[in-house]
């Protein structure tokens, strides 16, 4: 049954007209994707749960950056919750087991949280840029209320922007071969969506990340009050932020752009070029985008001085409680030992009183 699902052809729609039948190599990406989703889920879920708690402590202490980091952790956690469903879907030969509404909701949560995460990464970089480059001028601008408002607007805009997901034919998984958001069909709506995702969801955020991190790096390098090791740390963090973004989101959005461009050239699609050569890289690139959610807690949260202090404080408190518990246990054992010793002495004295004395 699975082999039939793998090799069964489907009809490609070009500009609204049915032209040819192409076969998609579903089996080629099954094992790599399932392994990738499993590893990301295993690492990302506990990491994001921990960072939700740590960043919540920072929010309570009026830390502005904590608002963005807390929202990022919640967003990544929600994003990761969809991975078990996609892993089952891929492992089952790309056959959706549930209703069309479940497919649409899962796709909506997946893609919405992906782009909310991307824009929150921009917010983190912009906030750090303002705090470093305009340290004095930004004292009245960096407020928790403003950060909360910005986060709310991002969620609303991205959420409303992905509402068309519920009307796309790709989300209709109840009929035919029961595919869920497979990129086999090229329509005007999907093409426009791909252009928007590349320009607004990748290229613009990349420009923001490059500009802000480059400015932060230049300002820190020119500072005379920082030690060389501190400057090296800032440089590594700036390079890691941009590099991680490119590795995780670059391949996927470049392929989206290629798909959008080939829509205008039907002769390219007549050779089933995407199905033969691009489909497997496309699915692997989509899997790569999930890695970002597992690494964000390490890259952003653990690189924060305040968060590291919070972790050390929590560990110190844990060790203190463990030591106190151990001392209490030892004290209780000593008391029990003393009590047992006194009981034994008392018993011996009673036995001695029972021994008859000679006449």
UniProtKB/TrEMBL annotation:
<feature type="transmembrane region" description="Helical">
    <location>
        <begin position="146"/>
        <end position="166"/>
    </location>
</feature>
<feature type="region of interest" description="Disordered">
    <location>
        <begin position="322"/>
        <end position="359"/>
    </location>
</feature>
<dbReference type="GO" id="GO:0010972">
    <property type="term" value="P:negative regulation of G2/M transition of mitotic cell cycle"/>
</dbReference>
<keyword id="KW-1015">Disulfide bond</keyword>
<feature type="transmembrane region" description="Helical">
    <location>
        <begin position="236"/>
        <end position="262"/>
    </location>
</feature>
<feature type="transmembrane region" description="Helical">
    <location>
        <begin position="282"/>
        <end position="302"/>
    </location>
</feature>
<protein>
    <submittedName>
        <fullName>Probable G-protein coupled receptor 132</fullName>
    </submittedName>
</protein>
<dbReference type="InterPro" id="IPR017452">
    <property type="entry name" value="GPCR_Rhodpsn_7TM"/>
</dbReference>
<dbReference type="GO" id="GO:0004930">
    <property type="term" value="F:G protein-coupled receptor activity"/>
</dbReference>
<feature type="transmembrane region" description="Helical">
    <location>
        <begin position="34"/>
        <end position="56"/>
    </location>
</feature>
<keyword id="KW-0325">Glycoprotein</keyword>
<feature type="compositionally biased region" description="Polar residues">
    <location>
        <begin position="329"/>
        <end position="345"/>
    </location>
</feature>
<dbReference type="Pfam" id="PF00001">
    <property type="entry name" value="7tm_1"/>
</dbReference>
<feature type="domain" description="G-protein coupled receptors family 1 profile">
    <location>
        <begin position="47"/>
        <end position="300"/>
    </location>
</feature>
<keyword id="KW-0297">G-protein coupled receptor</keyword>
<dbReference type="GO" id="GO:0005886">
    <property type="term" value="C:plasma membrane"/>
</dbReference>
<keyword id="KW-0472">Membrane</keyword>
<keyword id="KW-0812">Transmembrane</keyword>
<keyword id="KW-0807">Transducer</keyword>
<feature type="compositionally biased region" description="Basic and acidic residues">
    <location>
        <begin position="346"/>
        <end position="359"/>
    </location>
</feature>
<keyword id="KW-1133">Transmembrane helix</keyword>
<feature type="transmembrane region" description="Helical">
    <location>
        <begin position="68"/>
        <end position="89"/>
    </location>
</feature>
<keyword id="KW-0675">Receptor</keyword>
<dbReference type="InterPro" id="IPR000276">
    <property type="entry name" value="GPCR_Rhodpsn"/>
</dbReference>
<feature type="transmembrane region" description="Helical">
    <location>
        <begin position="195"/>
        <end position="216"/>
    </location>
</feature>
<dbReference type="GO" id="GO:0000082">
    <property type="term" value="P:G1/S transition of mitotic cell cycle"/>
</dbReference>
<keyword id="KW-1003">Cell membrane</keyword>
<feature type="transmembrane region" description="Helical">
    <location>
        <begin position="109"/>
        <end position="134"/>
    </location>
</feature>
<comment type="similarity">
    <text>Belongs to the G-protein coupled receptor 1 family.</text>
</comment>
């Amino acid at each position: 049954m699975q082999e039939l699902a793998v090799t069964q052809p489907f009809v490609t729609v070009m500009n609204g007209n049915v032209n040819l039948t192409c076969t998609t190599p579903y089996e080629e990406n099954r094992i790599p994707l399932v392994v990738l989703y499993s590893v990301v889920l295993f690492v990302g879920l506990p990491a994001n749960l921990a960072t939700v708690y740590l960043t919540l402590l920072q929010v309570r202490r009026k830390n502005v950056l904590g608002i963005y980091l807390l929202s990022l952790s919640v967003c990544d956690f929600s994003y990761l919750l969809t991975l078990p469903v996609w892993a089952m879907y891929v492992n089952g030969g790309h056959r959706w087991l549930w209703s069309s509404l479940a497919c649409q909701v899962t796709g909506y949560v997946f893609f919405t949280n992906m782009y909310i995460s991307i824009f929150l990464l921009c917010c983190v970089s912009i906030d750090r840029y303002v705090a470093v480059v305009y340290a004095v001028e930004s004292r009245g601008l960096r407020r928790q209320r403003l950060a909360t408002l910005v986060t709310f607007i991002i969620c609303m805009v991205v959420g409303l922007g992905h509402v068309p997901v519920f009307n796309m034919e790709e989300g209709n998984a109840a009929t035919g071969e029961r595919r869920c958001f497979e990129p086999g069909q090229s329509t005007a709506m999907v093409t426009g969506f791909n252009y928007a995702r590349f320009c607004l969801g990748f290229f613009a955020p990349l420009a923001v990340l490059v500009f802000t991190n480059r400015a932060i790096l230049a300002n820190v390098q020119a500072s005379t009050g920082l030690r060389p090791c501190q400057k090296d740390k800032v440089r590594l963090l700036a390079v890691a932020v941009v590099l991680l973004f490119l590795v995780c989101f670059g391949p996927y959005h470049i392929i989206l752009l290629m798909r959008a461009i080939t829509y205008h050239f039907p002769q390219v699609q007549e050779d089933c070029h995407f199905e033969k050569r691009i489909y497997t890289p496309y699915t692997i690139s989509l899997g790569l985008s999930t890695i970002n959610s597992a690494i964000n807690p390490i890259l952003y949260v653990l690189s924060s001085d305040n968060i590291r202090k919070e972790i050390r404080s929590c560990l110190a408190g844990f060790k203190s409680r463990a030591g106190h518990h151990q001392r209490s246990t030892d004290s209780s054992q000593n008391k029990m030992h003393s009590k047992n010793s006194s009981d034994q002495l008392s018993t011996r004295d009673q036995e001695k009183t029972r021994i008859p004395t000679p006449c």
